[in-house]
Amino acid sequence: MTPLANARARYDRATAHLDAPLALVDLDAFDANADDLVRRAAGKPVRVASKSVRCRALLERVLAREGFAGVMSYTLAESLWLARSGVEDVLLAYPSADRDGYAELAADPRLAASVTVMVDDPAQLRLIEEARGSGAEEIRVCLELDTSLLLLGGRVRVGARRSPLHSPADVADLARLVDRRPGFRAVGLMAYEGHVAGVGDEVAGSPLRSRAVRLMQRAARRELAARRDAVVRAVRAVVPELEFVNGGGTGSVQHTVAEPAVTEVAAGSGLFVPRLFDNYTSFTGRPAALYAQPVVRRPGVGVVTVLGGGYPASGVAGPDRSPVPYLPEGLRYDPQEGAGEVQTPLLGPPADDLLIGDKVWFRHAKAGELCERFAALHLVSGDAVVDTVPTYRGEGRTFL
Q: Which backbone phi and psi does 191 adopt, to 5 degrees?
């Protein structure tokens, strides 16, 4: 058997008692991926990005491992829920306009001590101040630095449009404003280099584009390392007791931790390793999260149809945002239909060996978004399901 054929046999045996559609996480692969993240972090703690996991049981599993510390959340409501569930260190990675959430945060000493919110604009401070009502708890604040690489005098921008704070002076000015404002305390700095951490540098079939990506990323890493160091020094001049400097992501862990100014890195997708993370030269992960759709039709020779499965990922629409048929090997989409909302035709020689009710295993494009489609994850070790745990959706939580 090939390794992929062996994996398919394991997953089919493990879930033989379960009807598809279903989603699973291979714990052996998940744990191996966690170990690899810790290895690449080289002694600096890894903060788990919850949007890439969206399952409390798996967040707890990885936080129990040496080398991981804290959660990076994606909404304020989620942050408060996780803190109430016992997570003592939650960094909200995005600014929020959730007034009710801020009122809860400011009124509860335990929540206020556990949750740090993201700010990159004085207007966000004013919104929080107005929303707190009678809540008197101090709000922990993290400042976000824009990591974009600006070229040709700023006329060309490489990187996500996130924070408006680009220079050391920009961030230090906001830190000064927070420091002088009663009821707030600046405790951290975050800088997410998505154009390095989230962009694969080995584009299949495109050697010239791959080279261009690698050249861009080398330039971006050099520029950001110098600027981030200057920003941290400028902020520490205002807030000497700064607790953490967060950076990186799954695709840049080993590069980001090499910067002395960075105290921790964030990662989450590297635990599940969805298909968007196949195209990196710096690391190789093991696909850990999969979903299965059942064969429901056999329209002709070399064709089967599975139920549903068209789960596109967020971002710019394109082929890389679609899931891919994974097991058995050799299946492909009908180019006229692609992955469908209710049914998905699949072409290829393996189709002739599939029977009605058989499972076809897929890989999705972006990590945690799979959990918005399924209420439970079946946890597999070896060739057995050892546990079944709810996703956020399964717990009735749909934060976005």
A: -145, 105
**Which residues contact residue 269 at a Cβ distance below 8 angstroms, ignoring those fewer than 6 apart?**
49, 52, 249, 250, 276, 277, 366, 367, 368
pLDDT at 204 over 80: no
The residue-averaged pLDDT of 213-223 equals: 83
Averaged pLDDT for residues 202-220: 79
Paired sense of beta strands 244-247 and 184-191, if any = parallel
Question: Would you tell me how many other CB atoms lie within 10 Å of the CB of residue 237?
Answer: 12
Beta pairing class for 46-49 and 376-381? unpaired
Give the CA radius of gyration of the chain: 22
In angstroms, the CA 30 to CA 15 distance is: 18
Task: Determine phi and psi for 190, rounding to 5 degrees.
Answer: -125, 140
d(CA 97, CA 124): 8
Rounded to whole angstroms, the Cα distance separating 264 from 46 reads: 6
Which residues, 6+ apart, have CB-to-CB distance to 235 below 8 Å? 143, 168, 171, 172, 175, 186, 189, 242
Name the phi and psi angles at 93, rounded to 5.
Answer: -85, -5
Tokens of 99: 């007034």
41 neighbors 283 (Cβ within 8 angstroms): no
Q: What is the 3-state secondary structure (H, E, C) of 9-62?
A: HHHHHHCCCCCCCEEEEEHHHHHHHHHHHHHHHCCCCEEEEHHHCCCHHHHHHH
Q: How far apart are CA 324 and CA 58, in angstroms?
A: 24
pTM value? 0.94
Instruction: Determine what percent of the chain is predicted with pLDDT higher than 90.
Output: 82
For residue 396, with 0-12 CB atoms within 10 Å meaning exposed, 13-18 middle and 19 or more buried, which class applies? Answer: exposed
CA-CA distance, 299 to 392, in Å (whole number)?
Answer: 36
pLDDT at 296: 98
Q: Between 207-238 and 168-180, two packed helices, what is the crossing angle to 10 degrees?
A: 40
Give the C-alpha separation, 21 to 217, whole Å: 39
pLDDT, position 384? 97
CA–CA distance, 283 with 304 (Å, rounded to integer): 35
